[in-house]
Fold:
Amino acid sequence: MHDTSSHAVAHHGPPASFIRKHIFSLDHKVIGKQYFGLAFVAVLVGIFLSWLMRLHLGWTNLAIPGLHLLSSNGAPGNLMTPEYYLQLMTMHATIMVFFVLTTAPFAAFGNYFLPIQVGAEDMPFPRFNMMSFWITFLGFIALMSSFFVGDGPTLGGWTQYAPLSAIGQAAGPGEGTGVVLWAISITLFCIGQLLGSLNFITTTLDMRTRGMSLMRMPLSVWAWFITSVMGLTAFAVLMPACILLILDHVAGTSFFVPSNLVINDQLLPHSGGSTLLWQHLFWFFGHPEVYIAIVPGMGIVSHVLITSMRRPLLSHRVMIYSMGALAVLSYMVYGHHMFVSGMNPVSSIAFSFPTLIITIPATIIVLLWLGSLYGSRLRINTASLFALGFISMFISGGVSGFFLAQPSIDILLHGTYFVVGHFHMVMGVAAMFGIFAGTFFWFPKMFGRMMNETLGRIHFWLTFVGTYTIFMPFHYIGLAGNIRRYQAFTPDYMQQFIPVHKFITVAALLTGAAQLIFVYNLIHSRFWGKPAPDNPWEATSLEWSTPSTPPPWNNFGDKMPVVYHDPYQYGVEGSTGDYVMQNSPERIETVRDEA
Amino acid sequence: MAKLFAVTIIVIAILSAIPIVRHTWWTSQDISTHGAPIDEQMSETMAESGILFLASQILLAVFIWKFSRPRPGEKIKSFPGGAMGLVIAAFLLVGTEVLALGAFGAKAWASIYFTPPGANAMPLQVQAGQFAFYFRYPGPDGKFGPLHPDLISEANQNIFGLDTEHDPDSKDDIVTAEMAIPVNREIHLLMHSKDVGHAFFVPELRVHQDFVPGLDLSMHFTATKVGRYEIVCTQLCGLGHYNMRAYLSVFSQEDFDSWLKKQATFQ
Amino acid sequence: MRRQIPFKAILFLPVALVVGIALMLVVSQKSVKAAPPSGGGVTGIVKLDGTPPHQKPIDMSKEPSCAAIHKDHPATTENVVVGSDGGLANVVVYISEGWSGGDVTPSSQPVFDQKGCQYQPHVLGVVVNEHFKVTNSDQTSHNIHPMPKPGGPNHEWNKSQPPGSPPIDAVWPAEEVAIHVKCNIHPWMSGYHVVVKTPYGVSDDKGSFKIENLPPGNYTLTAWQETYGTQTQKVTVAAGKPATATFTFKAK
Amino acid sequence: MATTIHEPPRIEKIGDSSRARSNSGNGGWRPLVPDAGDPRLVQEYAPPPASTGIWVAVAGISMTFAALTSALVVRKGGAPDWRHFTLPSILYLNTLMLLASSVTLEIGRRRVAVFMGGLRSTAASPARWLYVTLALGFLFVAGQYVAWRQLSSQGLYLATNPSSSFFYVFTAAHALHLLGGLGGLGRVIYKLDHLVLRRSTLDATARYWHFMDVLWIYLLLLLWMKL
Structure:
């Protein structure tokens, strides 16, 4: 034992038992795959819930066969009750935002590839990493268990605005135990992601291999790093907010519940709480959260796209700075969710400008992709198709941000399907495309087998066209005043939207069904896919230089890689072709940043 | 495959733009005095972001079409201007655009929210509760009686919790389930919620405001067109959220007076 | 194959879900059975003394399908419903003392209907453990929310009933006078369940009520009205001769 | 496209003096692997991630308490129901105990450092002062519990008033984090006994403990001013 005996690697040896290897594993790769599996289960549940919701929105009085099996109170005679619709909606949103869009691109791919891409043997705190997954998993179980409690899951939406969420059963079915389970689930999720962020940040700062300077890290690493900094601050705020919500709900405190509320002709015992306080705390987390969902997608898409374009981005640095600017600005814009919520109207303007300004780094990112596409040698495969689809979706979802950033226009659009269309495109579908691109790109490394390219392309086409068909009409009916979170459209002026909803329902069912192709492809390729070579995409980053595929337990065997080049040396004359791997010591004429 | 993809992107972009250009679905007709700048801001933003949308989608498609089949041995080319050019373009184009949008939008917003209601504005109270709006007119004395939340009883239709026996100001207050206002008269709407968060949205009137439990908020506006409109709730308030609505009738002054007289008899 | 296990674990999840759901669906039901009593009864009338309070009209414009039903006869509140002869409707008269007949057999399953966004009957009398049906005859979803005293043996519940869905079968396990019933979707909807252990009668539009199948004996009758509370009265039922009782509530 | 040939591994010039003197000799920003790339040699040189990790954790925890602080400020502002109460006086004794524990930990840390530096001739167990710290830490938590009992005997429970709600929330959140620190300290003692303690672990735990100390002083000031 010596003062300097601290070491950054080899915190654990190769796993011995089955449990250590597959369940309570300390290996970041296994944990990454566990996160991937969790996100996979969660997304299937989420899509299933959206099917039920879409069926109901298209045909409100339709009896959905077997629905009463899911909830006898929620669907008497297979007819969906108003609260059950909202419960499904809340669960769909919570599952998708937290357990899919945060876990898959950030926790799953980040865990698996961040250490490998910086040339580390593992994360510095593998036990925290293991806890991170299992706490998140517990959170998922807590959330799912709310389907089986008395009055079912919460119906308050993923925003859980107080006081509706804080006063309990009195507020109606779906506001009892379900809310507590929801808040417990999110608290656990926050703890899990905080532990994950701790590992991600420390790995990036301390565990890089020799020669891996910060600017030599691939863009995916940068995206995960920026995301984990955002996660560290955002989840640290949501967690105490959730705990205060639980106390209001269970212990009778009044953090968020004001005085003189009357429900069912009875005066509630609470007094003096501030409902806007919850909104401020929630959105201080909530807005960075949407960037937590999309920034890893940007990193993955850049990584995939560069490999397919056979050239680096016009500027590596500008891309990094833009993602960083998004992260910083994301904390200053959260008030745009509250323009008409009774906040001081002056602050609406104060929040409007940063919200508009955040479009500048976003535009730079898009322009960098487009500009780099120019003059490239684009290779088309499923991964690059999804990456290009991501760009198209991000543009489509992004332009609607111009509207929602302005308080005056928000008067017309707040709480309408326009908002639903906006966030589904920009952070839902776009992030999903990022996940798909990452899956097709990295599957060979993760599982040692190639995914089926034909099935992949069929899946891409159906999904690309399908998602546009679903979410573009949302914008139109939103413009015309169709309010979100309605289980049926009773106002007279909304009758005209019902045919549109029927159309969307059909599109959503078909697009959802197309995802089964992906499910089949994933499972089939996992066991019977073509064996993958070590570097199928002729890529340069370190994950493709591992001694075996999938990588061994300590990633690089006995020899740690040494990095000699910037991450994306494509379009050069290397000995292996038009690229040179980061750890290849050969001398080349390097591609330089053009900023 | 790449060419098909490029064509698909362009087709989708154009198809997406058609309903917008043709106004197949569009914001409802404005019946307020303050709505014009909002609508103007809306069409400005639509034009600018529409152009951005089409231009970038088409650019994406063209690049995919052009650069997916490189001739063998062809070197990679760089975008003229490089990354710095793009950054400058983004700052110039989008930067000026968003600043302009922000400045004009702030002006439109300020014209609505930073002006006090006029002295002659007609006071009118709205209370949101699960899941209905109720309205209160002060009656001939022009005064609203005090509210006693402990007296609220929906079963007895004492929606606001008025004590008509003890509060003289409450005696002539008129409580209704429909909102009616005279045309071309400024309304000062006093808003409060009885239970959870709700919102007051009349698309035609360009009026949208959340009810914040524990806070008394107010708005003022003037309707310019006689007709029957709908008030909807846009803030998730529980299972009956979808069913929370009320009608708004804009009457001529005479019709309004007789409507109010008739309502007074129902109290 | 060493990698097959996680995949099986994934497959296991939906199976576990399905099993869990199936378990949730096991619903136990009790049935009520008792010997039929016989004998005389009590008839009577409930009156209101004084001017009945003004019943405010209910504006149902937010629910057009209900508003249409009340087009010609505007719906009003039903706190005090007085018939033509001053007879007070919706009063439950039940035997509060002197009953020794054990459990009461319900004659037919009572129905608590929602029609025109009002409850029919406005006051539903049921005996303990008697199953009753809640039906929805409207074209809109209703939400039935009975609110027994918190902490008591009867538990609050809150269920929605979309149009066209099957009746809800409900039962109250303990005596309670009275349980307020509200609809969360339509705030004006208000009704009562009166749960008693003994024979009872509910007054009709003319104020008359009838308690049947009483063995001879001395009884204390209690009449309950939602606004005016309770009144009691002693009666004697002789064999083959029904007793009569008149309750008079004073308008405040 | 510029023309350069063979870029050697670049060493960044991020001049962070505190890192430059870090015990690994090359700074946390520049993990060096010898050319041979043998990971066994890395152990001599790689920086301690625990020291970075602890700062990241401190940032996260600060954020949580900042959120709670802003909740307190917003909740108090414009709330007519806020009832002031005097903090239980035992809190000041607790504060002294916690401050003392930081001092003893620092003494302990130096002793252990000397011990780890190879001067094993030091007869006394190096862990002694760590045990004292552990005991003071537990005394602090017990003292907090006494403070809670004092408040509840005055009829001030969690839900009595927003001021008491915040008192309980803040002290409980701090106590939970402190218990985490006690766990860390226990782990340090265990590792020390088994001679597997790393210097970075000791330093990180000490830093965390001092942070808990500072956090408590902050909370005490906040509660003293606001309640």
User: Anything to note?
Assistant: The helical segments of chain D are 17-20, 39-45, 49-76, 90-116, 128-153, 162-193, 199-226. The first helix of chain D runs from residue 17 to 20.
